[in-house]
UniProtKB/TrEMBL annotation:
This is DUF502 domain-containing protein. It comes from the Bacteria. The chain crosses the membrane at residues 12-29, 49-74. Keywords: Membrane, Transmembrane, Transmembrane helix.
Amino acid sequence: MKNTLSRGLTNLLPMVLSLWLFWSLFISLDGLGHLLLDIVELDNTFVGAGFILVAVLVFISGLLFSFSPFAWLYGWLEQQLMKFPLFKSVYGSIRDIAGLMKRDGKPKNQKTVLIKQANGGYVVGFIMNQTAPKPLTDALPEGEWVPVLFQLSYQMAGVTSLVKREDLIEVDWSFEDAMRFNLTAGISAKSITAVNDKKAIKTANSEQDAPADKPQ
């Protein structure tokens, strides 16, 4: 009985929570769209019309940002608002997080690395940028220092440390899979399976490419 309930909860809970989260997001955006429709006195609409309106507006804004005059105007407005300390802190954090979501067409600076600890163990970290800020490098001893993020399990927070590049071990592991591994403290079976599958494919390819032994 206990195992059956546990198995049902384990399988249903992620699906239910995900659907609830996306449904809540849909309702919120739909409500925002209906507020815009009410402004132009189009209140007799179906459920989802507000969501469609918001999606269309976001798409149009994406097209506008491809034009230099609009992008320049938005950049100027952004610089003016960034003069306010509180807005700068909140907006800057949200913008940086949103920047992590847009990875297509950009060099992927976020690399997975291992850092050896004093007790002989290793910690999974992420190179978030290839260079550290100049005020920090000026204060640190000579060497090539890079900012490395150590993700804390079960939360988005983490600790950023400056580590010498020569002390890093780069890992052939995608940022997304390694992040999932860290966030779930290694419980995520998907990230582990992805790594094992990749190793198996590499091993199979190396065996195929290896020259066959000559008959004696």
